[in-house]
């Protein structure tokens, strides 16, 4: 069992408070996922020639200042890290291949949680309320977000195994369910030169769909391929720089409910997480059908 | 009639359910309104008294499960397993219902005004279910007795491995499950349909617009001589 939440804010004046609006949604999914939690938020994009990297250090006493200085002297850059505990966001116009390989060599203990112009990712082990407090998630602002609470069933409880998973740029995915063919998917993608960070089934789905889109599929076509290739139970919620997308497996084994309002679109595993949204009484609440694609644009 | 209100915003669900589990004589005839259900699980489960309960909003999993005698109305939607294993009484969902509505229900009437999700009436054991909208795939899977009335459409594999339940569908059936076949509407079945339409607020609906589906009885060792025993 896991919990998923998604929120896309249409009312521009509410976007500064997306973290506050999201909090009861995430907390509402605590019983479905008490061991880890994570959040991807899409903010206004950085400069067109820059990218931002959400970084995770395994220890709380990690010196981000030292990393910042080392990065700047190595790349003749003037970046300033936005630090929240053992999490930091690095924004830089340095070539992304260089940035990633430098981090891997100079700081192998650092995980790159996401790369993109809009996406920031926070994820860690612990109760959703504790993870939210650790990374000050109520203070988030942005256009849309994708969150998850995890009850691990098929792989270890570590920060790296928490959702959301990301691949490529400005792409993330959360999953409630379990896939039965992640190993064959992983082998197939490894033949395409795609590297994996965990043995988690959701990472396989995330990298599969991102690979399809890099191969030229639009989101819809990639998801159609997903229906053919992903075997198992899933409700998947995905975020791109300007969209949220939702699919459920053909047997609808895992739940989802949607509230569409003039001001927002909210998605969750259960209505418990939608109940405290403003004016939800006047939202159109419905259960998404199995094997249908639901896409909402910012 | 005496009326009592509980607000789940400031009352523990357990307090409400414990009140509803008082001796039947104390509860009989009372009206109980539960506001701000907010998708909580297990609201008004295991009732066994002639009490009227209104859940004013969206209910979570297993609302009114195992119901006996009570009339439970959900003004919003109901999540997975509403009225599962109901024995008697009436459960009325005014919105939509999620998967496995009325699963294994043995008696009573479940009315869903909107759509029902997948596996509606799975393993139905004698209750009646009337769905104003459509039902999802695998509905009435292994249904043994009782009646499922669907005013809209049915999804894939309707009535798979069906026993002796009757399935009435007004709209399209995407596909029939193994051993489920269309039957001629006999007078007894038509009477059941007319009665259920009247009880569920659909008296104006033409019973002749429905098709009847039942078991082809090839998947189990059925002796037609024993049909009266069901």
TrEMBL record, chain A:
Limits of the Glutamine amidotransferase type-2 domain: 2-298
Entries under InterPro entries matching the protein: GATase_2_dom (IPR017932), Ntn_hydrolases_N (IPR029055)
Keywords carried by this UniProt record: Glutamine amidotransferase, Transferase
UniProt xrefs under PROSITE patterns: GATASE_TYPE_2 (PS51278)
Record's protein name: Glutamine amidotransferase family protein
Annotated organism of origin: Methylophilus glucosoxydans
């Amino acid at each position: 069992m896991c919990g998923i939440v998604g929120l896309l804010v249409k009312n521009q004046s509410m976007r500064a408070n997306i973290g506050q609006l999201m909090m009861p949604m995430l907390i509402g999914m605590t019983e479905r996922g008490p061991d880890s939690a994570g959040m991807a938020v899409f903010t206004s994009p950085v400069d067109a020639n820059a990218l931002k990297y959400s970084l995770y250090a395994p220890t709380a006493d990690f010196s981000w200042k030292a990393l910042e200085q080392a990065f700047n002297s190595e790349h003749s850059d003037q970046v300033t890290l936005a630090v929240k505990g053992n999490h930091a966001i690095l924004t830089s116009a340095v070539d992304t291949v260089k940035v990633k390989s430098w981090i891997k060599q100079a700081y192998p203990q650092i995980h790159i949680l996401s790369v993109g112009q809009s996406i920031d990712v926070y994820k860690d082990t612990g109760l959703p309320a504790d993870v939210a407090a650790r990374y000050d998630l109520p203070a988030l602002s942005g256009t849309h977000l994708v969150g998850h609470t995890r009850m691990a069933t098929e792989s270890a409880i570590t920060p790296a195994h928490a959702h959301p998973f990301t691949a490529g740029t400005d792409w993330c995915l959360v999953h409630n369910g379990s896939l039965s063919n992640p190993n064959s998917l992983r082998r197939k993608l490894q033949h395409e030169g795609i590297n994996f960070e965990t043995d988690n089934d959701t990472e396989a789905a995330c990298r599969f769909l991102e690979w399809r889109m890099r191969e030229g599929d639009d989101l819809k076509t990639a998801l159609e391929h997903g229906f053919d290739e992903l075997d198992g139970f899933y409700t998947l919620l995905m975020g791109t720089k300007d969209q949220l997308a939702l699919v459920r497996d053909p047997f609808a084994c895992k739940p989802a409910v949607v509230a569409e309002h003039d001001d927002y679109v909210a998605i969750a595993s259960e209505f418990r997480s939608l109940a405290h949204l403003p004016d939800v009484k006047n939202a159109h609440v419905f259960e998404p059908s199995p094997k249908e694609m639901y896409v909402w644009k910012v | 009639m005496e009326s009592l209100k509980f607000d789940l915003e400031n009352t523990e669900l357990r307090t409400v359910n414990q009140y509803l589990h008082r001796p039947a004589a104390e509860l009989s005839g009372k009206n109980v309104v539960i506001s701000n259900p907010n998708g909580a699980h297990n609201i008004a489960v295991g009732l066994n008294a002639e009490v009227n309960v209104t859940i004013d909003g969206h209910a979570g999993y297993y609302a009114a499960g195992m119901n006996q005698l009570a009339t439970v109305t959900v003004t919003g939607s109901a999540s997975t397993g509403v009225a599962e294993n109901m024995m008697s009484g009436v459960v009325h969902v005014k919105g939509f219902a999620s998967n496995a509505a009325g699963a294994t229900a043995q008696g009573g009437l479940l009315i869903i005004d909107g759509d029902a999700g997948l596996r509606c009436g799975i393993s139905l054991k004698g209750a009646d279910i009337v769905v104003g909208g459509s039902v999802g795939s695998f509905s009435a899977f292994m249904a043994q007795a009782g009646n499922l009335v669907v005013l809209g459409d049915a999804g894939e594999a309707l009535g798979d491995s069906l026993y002796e339940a009757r399935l009435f569908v007004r709209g399209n059936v995407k596909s029939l499950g193994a051993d489920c076949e269309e039957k001629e509407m006999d007078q007894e079945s038509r009477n059941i349909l007319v009665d259920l339409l009247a009880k569920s607020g659909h008296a104006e609906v033409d019973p002749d617009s429905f098709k009847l589906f039942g078991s082809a009885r090839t998947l189990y060792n059925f002796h037609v001589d024993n049909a009266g025993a069901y």
